[in-house]
Description:
Radius of gyration of chain A: 32 Å
Distance between the termini of chain A: 91 Å
Oligomer: heterodimer
Strand order of the largest sheet of chain B: 3-4-5-2-1-6-11-8-12-7
Distance between the termini of chain B: 72 Å
Helix content of chain A: over 70%
Number of strands of chain B: 13
Number of helices of chain B: 15
Strand content of chain B: 15-25%
Amino acid sequence: MTLSDFISSFSSKEILLIGTIFFLLFMVLFLLLYAIIIRIIVTARNYRINALKQKWELVLFEYLEQQSRFKDIAGTRDMNDLSQFEIQHRDWMVFGEFIEDFLVNLEGKDNERIIQLLWETKYFVHLMKALNTKNVVVKAYSAHFLGLMKYKPAEGKLKELVYDINPIVSISAFDSLYQLGLTKDTRKIIKDVLNNADLSFSRISEIISGYGVKINSVLVSLLDDDEVIISAKTLIMNVVAANNVLESIPVIKKIAYGTDNKELTVGIIKAVAAFGDPDFIPYLQSKLFSEDWVVRSQAIKALGEIASPSIIPAIKNIIIEDTEFWVRLYGAQVLWDFGQEGIDALEDILAGNDDEELKKILQFVVYETESD
Amino acid sequence: MAEYISSGVLLFNYFVLFYFLSLNGMYILLTLLSFVALRKHMKEKLFSAQYKRLFHSSFYKPISVIVPAYNEELTVCDNVKSLLQLRYPEFEIVVVNDGSSDNTLGVLIETYCLKRSFRPVINQLPSGEVRGVYRSPDFPHLIVVDKENGGKADALNAGINVAQFPLVSAIDSDSILEADVLTKLVRPFLNDPKTVAVGGIVRVVNGCTVKAGEVIDIDLSPKALPNYQIVEYLRSFLFGRVGWDMLDGLIIISGAFGVFLKSAVIQCGGYLQETVGEDMELIVRMHRVMRENKKPYRITFVPEPVCWTEVPEDLKTLGRQRNRWQRGLMESLVAHRVMLFNPRYGIIGLLAMPFFFVFEMLGPIIEFTGYIVFFSSLMLGIVNYKFAILFLSAAIMLGMVLSVGSLVLEELTFRKYPKYSHIFILFWYSILENFWYRQINTWWRFMGIVDYFRGKKSWGKMERKGVKQQT
C-alpha cells in the first residue's frame, strides 16, 4: 500500500479528525514548552534583579554614608546605569520597588537624602510619564510613588486620577494627595471620594484618618453637608471618633436628633461612646427603646462607657424586659463593670427571675470577667 | 428492528458528540476568562502593601474561624496550632467537636489546658445540643465547642451560634492555612460592602513538609494518586472557579476554606443539615435568597492559594469522597431546581445552574452510557472503527490540552511548585489522567448518582494519614 493509498483510505471527516488530533498534540507540546519557558524567564529575571539590587544596595549605602552626589558615586563604581533614570530604563519599576523600603523606613536626614537621590536621578520623569499610560498597574504605581516622594508638581495630575474609573488608581492617587498635604481642593476631593460607593471604604477611612488634626475642620463641615451620603457620614463619624475631633460634637448632636437611619444612628452611638460626652446620655437612653435591637445593644454599651451608676435602674429594667439576647448581655456586662452597685443590681435581677437565658448570661459575664 | 437500533445508537453517538463539544467549548471559554482574570489579579497584587497598612489601623473586620472536627484526634492539635499562628489583627478560632467517638475533645483539653466557659450559645441557626463550651487561658482566642454528633453542617451552625465576630470562616479541620489567608480573603469585604461570601484556591498538601502548622517545603507526593489530584485541583481552581467568578456565576466555595458575612449566613438559614454537600448548597441558597429578596450582594473568589488540604491516597477513600461530592451536587441542584433556566436568578439561573445540571450532574450518566454505547457500536460495527478511534484520540488530546493549560496558568501566576522536575512530573500526570483517572472518576460519580437515588446520606470514612511534619 502506497502512502497515497493509505491517505485515500480515510474519509474527509476522518482526515479532519486527524488534523484536529495533530493540532491538539501540537498544543499540548506547545503548552509544556511555554510553561518551561516561563519558568526559565522568571528564574533568570529574578536572578538578574537580585543581583541588580545587591549592586544598588552597595552604592546606596555608600551614598548614605557620604555627602557626595549619588551620580558621582555610581560613576566611580562603574554603575552609570544607575544615574540614567532620566532616560528610558527598563528596570525603573524594579528600582522603585528597591528604593521604596528605604524611602518608607528611613527617617530624618537619611530620608531627605533618598528623596534627593530620586530628584538627582530624575526618577520622577518616568513616574510623571507613566501617569498617562493605559496600564492600570503602572499608573497606580506611579501615583503611589509620587506621593511617597512628596512630588508637588504631580498634584494636578493626581487630582485628576482620583476620578479614574479604576479603584486602585483612584485610591493610590487619593493616598498620594494625602502625602502631599492639604490643598484648597482637599474638601471637594474627599467629598467626591466618599460619595463614590465603588471605592474601598476601609482604605479611605485609613487615609483620611492619617491626615490627623489638619483635616478636622473639613470632616466637620462634611458631616454637616446634605450632599454627603449616609454611609460616608457614618465613615466620617468613625474617623472623627477615632481621632477624638471634639469640634464635631455639636454637628453630631444635630444629626443625632434629626435622623432615623439605622446605619447612621449606630455610627453616632459608637462615636458618642468614644467621645464620652455625658450630654448624650438622654439621647442614648431614648435609643434603648429603638425598634432595632442593634441600635438598642449599641446604646446600652455606650451608656456603660459614659453614664454614672445613676443609670443602673434603667439598665436593670432593660435587662429584665428586653427580649433580645445581645441587649441583655451587654446590659449585664455594663452592670458588672459598675462594680459592687452593678453586681447588687444583677443579684436583684437573679433573685426575682427564673429566666434560664438570663442565668446563662449572668454566668457568662461573671466567668468571662473573672477569667480575664 | 436492527435498523431502528442502529439509527438509535447513531443518534445517541451524535448526541454525545454534541455534548462533548458543548462541554469542552465551555471549558475553553472558562480557561480564557481565567487567563484574563489571573493576569489582572497578579498585576493588582502589587498593591497588597496598601492593604497591609490597613491592618495596623482600627478599620478592619474581625473574623471567627470555625473548625468542625469529627474523630480528628490524630491531626486536630497540629491544625489548631497552625490556625493560632494566623496573622490578623482580631480573630477567634472556634473548634467544634461534633460528638467524636475518639479522643478529639480530650487531646484538645489536655494540649491547650481548656477550661469550661459559660460563653452563651445563641440559637440563631438550628444545631444539635451543645454539651459545653471551653476556653483556653493561654490562648484567649481559642474556643472549643463540644456538641452531640450531627454532621458537618450541624457543627458549622453550632460554631456560628457561638461565633462573636461579623465575619465567619468555615474550614475543614485538616486544612492548613497560609498565615496571611485572612488578610487576603477579607479584602473583598473591605472593598465592596455588598460582599457576602469569598472563596480561595485550595492546594494539595500530600508530599509537602509542614513545620509548626505551616507548609515550609512544597513538593509532590511520592504516591501517584495525590499527584493526579494536584493536576485536578489546579484545573478546578485555576480555571473552573476563576472563570465562573469572572462570569459572576460562582456557585461553589470549597468547604475546605471560605469566608462569609455572618448576618447573611443567618439570614439564609445557615448550613443545611440534610445534605452531604453543605458548602455548595449554602452558596446556591445565598444566591437564591439574595435574589428573591432583591438584595444587592456579591459572592466572589480570590485567586490566591490560601489553603492546603490532605487528599485521599487510596482509591477506596477517593472513590467514597467523589461519590459524596456527586451526591452533594445533586442534592443542591435538586433542592434549588426552581432556579434552573429561570431568568429571575440571572446568570446563576440561566448559565451556572444549567451547566452544573447538564455537565456535572448528568455528565457521569451521559459519559458512562456514552462509553458503553460507543464500544458496543464498535463491536456491532455500527460505527466506523477508524472514525471511532480517531474521535476517542481527539477527545483525549483535548482533555490533555485543558490539563496542561492549567499547568501553564500555574506557571504564569503562583509557581508554587519550585523545581523544574515538578513541571515535567505534573505534565506526565496530566497526560496519564486521561487514560484511566478521568474514567474511574466518571464511574465513582455515576455510583454517586445511583446512591443518591438509593437515598444514601452517609459521608463515608475519610482516612487521614497526616502530613510530613518537621520538628
